[in-house]
Amino acid sequence: MRLQSRALVWRAIHLPQRRTLCGKSKEYDIVIVGGGLVGASLCAGLVQSQLPCKIALVEPNLQRLLSNSKEKSGEAVPLRTSTINPASQQWLKKLKIWELLDSQEVAAFARMKVWDSTSGSSLVFHASEVGMESLGFVVANDDLLRGCYQRLQRSLQSTQSQIDFFDSGVDDFHWYFSQSGFTKWPRLVLKDQNELHGRVVVAADGSNSTTRKSANIPWFSHYYQQRAVVLTVRTEKLHRTAWQRFLSTGPIALLPMAGVNISNVVWSTTELEASILCSASKETLVKELNNAFLGAVNLHKDSDTEEYPPSISEILRGPASFPLYLGHASEYVKERLVLVGDAAHSVHPLAGQGVNLGFADAQCLVELFENAWMTGRDFGELSLLLQYQRKRLPKNLLMLAALHSLETFFSFQFGPVSFIRGLGMSLLGGLIPAKKAIIDFASGKI
Ligand SMILES: Cc1cc2nc3c(=O)[nH]c(=O)nc-3n(C[C@H](O)[C@H](O)[C@H](O)COP(=O)(O)OP(=O)(O)OC[C@H]3O[C@@H](n4cnc5c(N)ncnc54)[C@H](O)[C@@H]3O)c2cc1C
């Protein structure tokens, strides 16, 4: 069947329910609540797949995101970055978002060194050891978001989908869950008084998701009693390694950014240390950072750049700090509702996986909706949405458990545990198949 006629049939079967809609009441096939990285990439994915459907994107910071041009953000170096794994890069390439990032915005790294401050043991991952070009890419969140919204704006002319943007938050949700499987469409009342009815509502509104809460989906949460202190720094030498040192208080990472000798630091530490760091002078911070990465090592000009991270010479942006939680929803779907990204799961940033899991959710959902359209199914059908849950929940849970175990394992300072940890890291260092398995897992291949 040709695409045009397939679209007509799909519309005829799934015509919006007839009801009298008052002035500002509108009907959509898909309502996405939250236009952060995951919601915006999902919207770009739906638009690119040319589904002939009506989509609403609801985001309270939409105006800022749509007009987020490089020129407006000025000269300041970015503060928040994400480590993008190769699977997410492929997805962003497919959406033609990756091509909107220029070489000044993406820093690839082909090497990663992880070491333990207690035992001194280390583990080095090389992309070449496992036949890859890079292990990942560090990109500023603002640049990624700009790419998503530019893609959306450029696609508006050439898509079969119709997108309406709502620069507002949701004030009130009305769900009509029932056992019969034929629930009425949910009704969302926005802060700007618009009323949206959606065949399916996608909650992409972050870990504090009001959409999830309004639908009474239980959320398991664990506070690490830690905050991530984030800074952008200048290093004395250029480096292309992602460094991560496990300190007794938590991990600290130095990630190469695009630009000359610029890196991003994510230092997960106790609340007390985070507040001390955030109120310290820049000179003190530089000292503290070098001490955290290098300890007693005194770097000389000719120090081995493979062995130690470069020393930090200047704070360019930050610090800012963020509380660290592990969180997971007990279910990802209900009739006419689906959770994606941090609204469904929130992980410790120690392996830079959060948004990568969210992109994988979005990709899975786009494929599901494409199949539903081809087979004439209603996007909001629970049995359809359960397919998404069956695919994504076990994978996300596995990553969540792995990251939590890693965090816990490295937080033990008890002698025998740190000895075993050191031994394990040394043994693993020589086992290429084991390292390949770890890299595949972190790259989103498994
Ligand atoms: C310090 C730190 C470092 C990190 N580093 C990495 C990394 O290197 N790699 C990685 O993969 N992940 C990383 N993460 C995790 C990553 O930032 C998150 O997983 C990701 O941002 C989640 O994206 P999201 O779109 O699901 O949610 P969010 O980014 O939280 O976006 C939610 C959106 O919903 C909107 N919203 C909220 N409420 C409403 C409402 N009621 N109505 C409408 N809209 C609403 C918000 O305005 C926001 O735009 C890190 C996290 C932290 C804290």
From TrEMBL:
Organism: Galdieria yellowstonensis
Residues annotated as domain FAD-binding: 193-394
One of the protein's GO biological processes: ubiquinone biosynthetic process
Keywords: FAD, Flavoprotein, Monooxygenase, Oxidoreductase
One family name in Pfam for this protein: FAD_binding_3
PANTHER family, per database record: UBIQUINONE BIOSYNTHESIS MONOOXYGENASE COQ6, MITOCHONDRIAL (PTHR43876)
Annotated SUPFAM superfamilies: FAD/NAD(P)-binding domain
Required cofactor(s): FAD
One cellular component term from this protein's GO annotations in UniProt: mitochondrion
Keyword Flavoprotein among UniProt keywords: yes
Family: Belongs to the UbiH/COQ6 family.
Lineage of the species this protein comes from: Eukaryota, Rhodophyta, Bangiophyceae, Galdieriales, Galdieriaceae
Keyword Cell inner membrane: no
Name the record gives this protein: FAD-binding domain-containing protein
A GO term for molecular function: monooxygenase activity
